[in-house]
Amino acid sequence: MQDESRVQLTVRGALMGMMLGGVLSLSNLYIALKTGWSFGVSITAGILAFAIFAVFLRVGIVRRAFGVLENNAMQSVASAAGYMTGGGTVAAIPALMMITGEVMPAGQMFVWIASIAMLGVVMAIPMKQQMINVEGLRFPTGVAAAETLRALHSAGGGGEARLLGWSGLFGGVLAFFRDAHAAWIPFNLPSKIPFPGLTLAGRPLADFTLSLEGSLLLAAGGAIMGFRAAWSLLLGTIINYAILAPWLYQSGVLDSKLGYKTIVGWSVWLGASMLLTSGLLAFSFQWRSVVAAMRSVTAAFGTTMASDEVPMRWFLIGMAVFGPLVVGLQWLFFGITPWMGTLAVVMSFFIALVAARVTGETDTTPTGALGKITQVTFGALAPGNVTTNLMTANVSAGVAIHAADLLTDLKSGYLLKADPRQQFWAQFLGVLAGSCFVVPAYRLLIPTADVLGGDQWPAPGAQTWKGVAVMLANGFDSLHPTAQTALFVGGVVGVLLVLIERALPKWKPYIPSPAALGLAFTTPGYNSISMFLGATVAVLLTRSRPVLADKSVIPVSSGIIAGESLMGILVAVLVVAGLLQS
To answer: b vs e for 314-332, b when ≥16 Cβ sit within 10 Å of the residue's Cβ?
Structure first.
């Protein structure tokens, strides 16, 4: 008789992972287009699947309990699906749309993001043996996911599941009465709450995007992201929207209509340069990780693999299939010459190698900074070609994030003594599921290029990618003199913040995060205000009721994020169907 606790990748687990991961990928798509941030879905999916199968078992729909290793395999499927926004749908693709005004066809987008993701999964194979088995890199999210599964399956886990469910319902109801418009709906909640009577430069604060969100989604995101990032966002918002924007408006640099799109057209240069220099400098300080990563992949080819490890021939076969495929798609879809496409794939391997190692050590995947290495490289190789610049970087960043995601999942499996081969196939199923969900949702939310970069879909991440591509294409002299100054100042500030962090590590919580500070110059002020308020509530709860905070902050925040974002997408579907008004 089979030991139920050893059952791993099953049909029911795979289907559940594909469904949950696909649905949660919509949540990531929604919030990333709003804020530039995205959140891991594996722990949320693990809690939800545990609760769903507990109900199924109780009512007799299934006969066998949902085991811990089965849940782990399900998490691998869900995680790969949830990260399908990393294939370019919230960065390179909307950036290209904003520049060209053209919409990428759905079929083209599906093949593009799925192929990049599968290449990333394959590239992780030679990294696993050395980074996880030999060196034991921590991969903190992988450790947290394994510990969560152990707790769920040993203690029941019903409390976290109920919190997630009720908060998701609350978030969905809130979003419906805010966003849904029809004659039969008795009232609507406000989408923005202004600060009445307060002005800057003779204009209402709301004209400078300084207001409160009629939403808890971003507050929930702030509770998860941590207080340092949140207060850094608020600091950047104050500098950008409360100091610089009013001064530029009074000086005649900014158009009198103001608003997010007008202000960010200037401030993106400060934010993008800060993100670029801080990311590249922080990456350069990881040179030991780079050297170790190169050694690890070399060691992998000379190591005798255990019988249950993913064999190295799978890596060679996968590279032989997906490498030429991605090169061909670059040429077919974007006119990127085959030698440049090949160079992008080769660079992606080394970028994924470094990204995976940094993720294992810090739990942060530096895809933004690493993608910009590709942008700078192809800015020199193909000057003036923004399409080549963006889409080669899309390959690098997408491959890196999916390789790092698989290794994070494999860390969970290693701790739980799971079969890595089954997790490898689970990732492929997740990639297909996530692509099936993300692509139609993206086309629904972003039907034309002109909806990007405004109050509804600010797409801060894409703003940065667009800014770097335009600067490399047009040259420094094409910018307004004040934007040139901002570009220089942002670059210097990014360098200084990284150097200060290195010099004063004990003071790091009190030093602005260069990534969050830079992002504040590309995201609306009301987003940053909401995230700061959410992070403040979380830190106050953690200090006053640490046990309660430990059990409630992640489930409640995840539930609100999922509930609001999924309802936002459902409302968009109902508008298209003619059942609601836009």
So the answer is: ebeebbeebbebbbebbee
